[in-house]
Amino acid sequence: MNGAHALLATLEANDVNVCFANPGTSEMHFVAALDDAPAMRGILCLFEGVATGAADGYARVKDSPAATLLHLGPGLANGWANLHNARRARVPLLNIVGDHATYHAHLDAPLQSNVQLLADALEGWYCRTTSSDDLAGDAARAIEAAYGPPGRVATLVLPADVSWSDVGSVPSSWPRTERPSPRAIDDATFERALAALRSKRCTIFLGGNALSKEQTGLAQRVASATSSRLMMETFATKMDRGAGVASPERLIYVSEFAVDQLKETEVLVLVGSTEPVGFFAYPNVPSRLAPENCEIIHVAPPGSDTLGALEALVEALRAPTVALEHGEPTVPPSGELTTQSFSAAVGATLKEGVIVADESNTSGIHLFGATRFAPEHQWMTLTGGAIGYGLPVALGAAVASKGRVLALESDGSMMYTLQALWTMAREGLDVTVVGLSNRSYAVLNMELTRVGAVTDGGASARMLELDDPTLDLSRLAQAQGVPSVRVTSADELVVALERTYATPGPMFIEAVLPKGLH
Amino acid sequence: MNGAHALLATLEANDVNVCFANPGTSEMHFVAALDDAPAMRGILCLFEGVATGAADGYARVKDSPAATLLHLGPGLANGWANLHNARRARVPLLNIVGDHATYHAHLDAPLQSNVQLLADALEGWYCRTTSSDDLAGDAARAIEAAYGPPGRVATLVLPADVSWSDVGSVPSSWPRTERPSPRAIDDATFERALAALRSKRCTIFLGGNALSKEQTGLAQRVASATSSRLMMETFATKMDRGAGVASPERLIYVSEFAVDQLKETEVLVLVGSTEPVGFFAYPNVPSRLAPENCEIIHVAPPGSDTLGALEALVEALRAPTVALEHGEPTVPPSGELTTQSFSAAVGATLKEGVIVADESNTSGIHLFGATRFAPEHQWMTLTGGAIGYGLPVALGAAVASKGRVLALESDGSMMYTLQALWTMAREGLDVTVVGLSNRSYAVLNMELTRVGAVTDGGASARMLELDDPTLDLSRLAQAQGVPSVRVTSADELVVALERTYATPGPMFIEAVLPKGLH
Question: Which residues in B249-290 belong to E strands, given as ranges?
């Protein structure tokens, strides 16, 4: 039994049984050991950003870690952007990064680099194992670190010789790490929040793990009993939504509007989230979005018992149940395909239990409204701002889930990690991708104005337009084995969506919108 | 005049006039300022790894830096793997990484990360500018750092407010950095090398900048006059090759064979290169490839005056000129498409002045032989081992060159940075890509055996095979606007290559090889 076998046995003992892999030479013993680890599902990805984003999506759905398998510094770097998103999503994730043999590293071979710096920049957990006998213990510690709470990216560096060397003494059982409970709520802070809710103009601000149906329902009762406002962060890791689910008001991405949303708030009560700040700085717009004299109470920080906090608030306030909000389901749209009719088509066709991975950016501006009273579903967003999260996260979510995943993806964003489509086809996953073609970095056209940049020429426009040449999105999917269709009207989009919900396996729908921002 | 204008003016003053860009919100003022900087050519890339690889390719051809424009930590991370290759190629390269406004960073907004750690892992040069008035000076220092010698990756972090704030006092001229001369050769080391060449069994080992026609010619004279062996590193940044050019023996990638090549060497005289070491470690194979008691003389380290060293050796030895080696040009192949006939097709059709970017991996094993007596051309290889260098480097080389670039690219490798194809189409570049479809990570099948990993099952095989589903390479290119053709015989490949040399603009040729390693 070599190190790779011990590592896989420890992963299996801790129920880490999916590995999104893009291996190289240093990982060959791990790959070979997969043949002796039938409980581990190895899933090949053609680019590391796909593997890491998939592990993020898997963790969002399962709330437990998948492993990645990456190849030295460049492999970790290629996966870094989606690890950054996973870090911001606060999900548990285990990176296994193969590296040069311990005795080879000092020779500065071509692939040698400082892997630790890359891992440290993820502000998670890092360990480089130097002996096969340490590997099982280090792997268990890595899984423990990944759990947090809150969830973190744990990176275990696996030198090739650690992987291939025999384990000195095989233990009778592999180390198992217990999943830790969420951290307890601080009593004094709780009392402060309670007093504020009873007496001040409060906004209850939900984020992170606090966006389950149960918790938004409890928060709604607290808000209703105290005449507080109920809001949520702009970019949720995962939230329950739809008919029968409370719907907190979403903080608007545009800082000016967010400031306006919060301007009456005397006390901001944070549950599962951190203080809301501007996604970017803009000239003459505050970076902190709450009013200057607003008190901020971190009643249930990320990783703490948000559910317990909300239950305790409901109990202390004797907050009565709140009648479910009713609304009309969205009517299937007809005619021209616009951002509005696109959203209506999604809302009108959405099925119960669907998990949505939303990276539609400017094209998706009407989605939340159009899906408000759709059957109960889950919604995931771009937590860390690193573009290219949507397809990989949808892939990982589909591996973790029994239901269908709907990825809403812009053309510009899709191009960062389009290799995810191949793995969707290979694994026969129930993912529907709507690829929105607006031939533009439309969000940047908006941002250009917002930051006050003055442009008058073709050179700048050429950095923002994608129509020369136009990307053939459906062909990109077909070329990777995903059945594809192109739709140019709302009616066609409705038909295509209905068909995909009735058809197993992946499907790509290219939705051709008017060019640019609409 | 704001910081962005000052930065662009300084770049222009230092002849940095190409910028491979993948911008975001923080870079909008830089993008807007392009409208006032007509000498700067902004080239949009759909993924950061394309931008950084293109800057590498540009520098390999021009020997002067291009700029990249990247978006915060995730943008730098996405570009990191090809920056690692550029670092190993020792080319000058200037990263401009937009970041949050100076006063926004402490708020830990979603895109906040430690950019410096990522930059430090490139072991080049790093500076974060904090005032618009410092920007021109910092940019000039960055360019100076990039020049080295040897060339380095210089990363200049540009906070958004530094970009948008007015410059206090506009200088009458922008700072200009002089290109430094290569470092002088150490006299004592030179004498030691000379003595060894006169008396010992020497191997002259060329690499880095020492692979120009002039220098390999001089080295050949030294080798001939001293009965030394003339060799070169496995992975050259750029070398002159073909009829009329000296052809050093290439160090074989497989360590066992490389050890055998070097086993008679008493003294290794390094010119432009570092000591040869194994690309990876393998059980029971030495990591250092030269014999244990071999003396190693670093007569002209990377960044030093390799040309001067070779000229001085020729003079000291009064080494006579050497008759040009003659050989038959390769005959156009016919019949089945194999790794052999593929290489013959490339060799038989190659035109004078073509720049080859080779990432054909196992499929390219016969290329060096088949092109030995082709018309004079240049050859670039994967210097840092980070897969996905080929298409971006070809793109950048085509921007820098007036002639045609031929990218020889494997299916597995191509998938890391396939977005380069779109920019080739957009810019109308004279690049021919031969996409080699063997539906396999064939090199890993070879490596699996070499590292002694024993496999017997489908789980490991599934990590190495790309045929479920088969990637449609030509369709991937067409979807991005590059005209494509698929060839399945050697005859068809010859015809397609001849046609592309006669046709302006990009062309993609999918060459379907037998599956796996052949």
Answer: 249-250, 267-271
Minimal Cβ distance to A109: which of B117, B278, B475: B278
Chain B contacts of A153, Cβ < 8 Å?
none
Residue B213 in 3-state DSSP?
A: helix
- Cis-peptide into B375, omega within 30 deg: no
What are the structural domains of chain A? 3-164 (3.40.50.970), 187-317 (3.40.50.1220), 339-512 (3.40.50.970)
Q: Give me the DSSP letters along A307-340.
A: HHHHHHHHHHHTPPP-PPP--PPPPPP-SB--HH
3-class SS of residue A288:
strand
Query: How would DSSP label each residue in A219-233?
Result: HHHHHHHHT-EEEE-
**Tokens 């739809």 belong to residue:** A242
Rounded to an integer, the average pLDDT of B65-82 is 98
Q: What is the pLDDT of residue B427?
A: 98
Please tell me which of the candidates A84, A160, A422 has its beta carbon nearest to residue B471.
A422
Interface contact flag, A479 B479, Cβ < 8 Å: yes
- Cβ-proximal residues to A154 (8 Å cutoff; 6+ apart), any chain: A65, A92, A93, A94, A95, A124, A125, A126, A127, A142, A143, A145, A146
Q: A71: part of which helix (H) or strand (E)?
A: strand A67-71
Extract the tokens encoding B267: 């003294």
Q: Do B453 and A31 touch (CB under 8 A)?
A: yes
Do A419 and B422 make contact, defined as CB atoms within 8 angstroms? no
* pLDDT, tens only, B379-422: 999 999 999 999 999 999 999 998 999 999 999 999 999 999 99
d(CA B313, CA B457): 57
End-to-end CA distance of chain A: 60
pLDDT band with cut points at 50, 70 and 90 for residue A457: confident
Contact state of B463 with A111 under an 8 Å Cβ cutoff = no
A17, A20, A25, A50, best to mutate vs chain B, most B CBs in 10 Å: A25
pLDDT of residue B455: 79
Categorize the per-residue pLDDT at A518 as very low, low, confident or very high, splitting at 50, 70 and 90.
low
Of B274, B448, B471, the CB nearest to A28: B448
Quick one: closest CA in A to B276, which residue?
A: A109
Answer whether A425's CB lies under 8 Å from A256's CB. Answer: no
Mean pLDDT for the stretch of residues B266-275:
98
The rounded Cα B109 to chain-centroid distance in angstroms is 35
Please answer whether residues A510 and A437 qualify as being in contact, where contact means their C-beta atoms are separated by less than 8 angstroms.
yes
CB–CB of A110 and B426 under 8 A?
no
**Confidence band for A456, pLDDT divided at 50, 70 and 90:** confident
Q: Over the stretch A49-83, which tens digit does the pLDDT of each residue have?
A: 999 999 999 999 999 999 999 999 999 999 999 99
Cβ-based neighbour number of residue B141 at 10 Å: 17
SS3 labels along B41-52: EEEECCCHHHHH
CB contact under 8 A, B422 and A469: yes
pLDDT of residue B457: 84
A chain contacts of residue B164, beta-carbon cutoff 8 Å? 283, 451-453
Contact across the interface for B111 and A235, Cβ inside 8 Å:
no
Report the predicted TM-score, pTM, of the whole model to 2 decimal places.
0.98
Tokens at B309, concatenated: 């060293």
What's residue A505's pLDDT?
Answer: 98
- Per cent of chain B over pLDDT 90 is 94
Give A516's pLDDT tier (boundaries 50, 70, 90).
confident
Rg over CA atoms, chain B: 24
- Are A490 and A366 a contacting pair, CB within 8 Å? no
Nearest to A278 among B80, B104, B384 (CB): B104
Cβ of B28 within 8 Å of Cβ of A453? The answer is: yes
